[in-house]
Amino acid sequence: MSEAGYTPAEIMTIAAARKLKNGTVCFVGIGLPSAAANLARITHAPELVLIYESGTIGAKPDVLPLSIGDGELAETADTVVSVPEIFRYWLQGGRVDIGFLGAAQIDKFGNINTTVIGSYEKPKVRLPGAGGAPEIATAAKEVAIILKQSKRAFVEKLDFVTSSGYYPNASGNGRPGSRGRGPTTVITDLGVMRSDPATRELVLTAVHPGTTIEQVRDATGWQLKTAPHVETTSQPNERELSALRDLHARTAAAHGNAATAE
Amino acid sequence: MREAVAGLVRDGDAVALEGFTHLIPFAAGHELLRQQRQDLTLIRMTPDIIYDQMIGMGCASRVVFSWGGNPGVGSLHRFRDAIENGWPTPVEIEEHSHADMAASYQAGASGLPFAVMRGYVGSDLPKFNKRIQPITCPFTGEVLTATPALNPDVTIIHAQKADRRGNVAIFGIVGIQKEAALAAKKVIVTVEEVVEELNAPVNACILPAWVISCVSVVPGGAHPSYAHGYYKRDNSFCKTWDDISRDRQQFRAWMNRHVLGTKDFAAYRRSIESEMKVGHV
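The joint structure predicted for all components is written out below.
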């Protein structure tokens, strides 16, 4: 806890939750995206539709799921469909407004890696892999990514592109075959980056209170560009903070403290 | 259960133990280990603790998957050790995305040679998995992605209940079980209980007896996973697994004591419960 009265993880989750508008359809990754999406749903966006890849549509969990397929999601969903159906009709069919993902590594064009650190054949660290992300990243109308900012995570060159953002190619069209707009927003514990509509490169548009632009640059593995006017994220309000803390407290109680502390 | 595995699963088979983070067939996986099946191709969208156990015991030569982790906890240490260091034996991996594996099971269940999807746009995965190929739509000329059908030799799933005739009902997160079962040459189902009548709504997820090779009753057979309407997931076990599996010798000792050293799943449950109570797992 900083003297500000909240942690970097809390402001990250709150800043991410604010990006989700009421009434939109959100395909949610597990972990940080799920915490932010549920915070949005229990604060300013009660009609936010949460879709998890386990087939739960309109899930309204009272505690954060530990896995993508917790019983809580099924019990609170409007409907539960099979895994092929969720990917084919609902995601590939173009019914998802925003895909909300986490990542181990990200580059300046919002490409993300959740597969390996090191080479694919002889990885230094074998990560879990793709899951639903490659298709969420390209089929959702837009994508938001949430992860902690550091030089290890924000890299000039990814070890592996699991799911694409904007990848420069010969034709100059960075997204052949992709139907959504790709990653528009990246939210971290230090600030917010947005994709420049012309160059597609991530540009720092906001820093969280008490964070400097220099600090964000120092935690980024490429020359991070900044918007002409970098805003400061507004302070978390009492309602946001208490809703988030209650959510984590309920989650910890339900999962026997097995949940992450984010 | 013992007879089902003995009669239906052979060394070298491609075996899918499915259950998308729900109804994971742990009891059946343990029986494969007790009977020391070797050289298996293990297919599963989400290899988690059960495949960590099977890979760490050396029964897999190949794993086909789309996400490998211990949900909410972290890495699968045995899975990673096999891929990163070849321990206890090198394991070949064939890696996909969820949307792809779901579509490939559907193709397998549909009697089609491949699945078509909009997938992997800009991803590096097709560079390393030659079973992901571009295909041109004959009607629009659009380039899409094709992946071959999945047709396991044996699919094994856990479900809530069967009736006396062997019809099986699955409730809650139904995942990929129906497709994985209908794509397979042989199907083994373990259930929580047998009832006189399923009394299921007409649109429920039902596998009729005549598509199933064998049904076995194993109460709690998904533990530490959960069975919707019966019991919750054992989150503390999933967390404890992170410690048990971190060290090779500790892992082997644990598996020998609790899985290979017990005659069935009920004995295994008693074995781990007595140990967890005294607090040194």
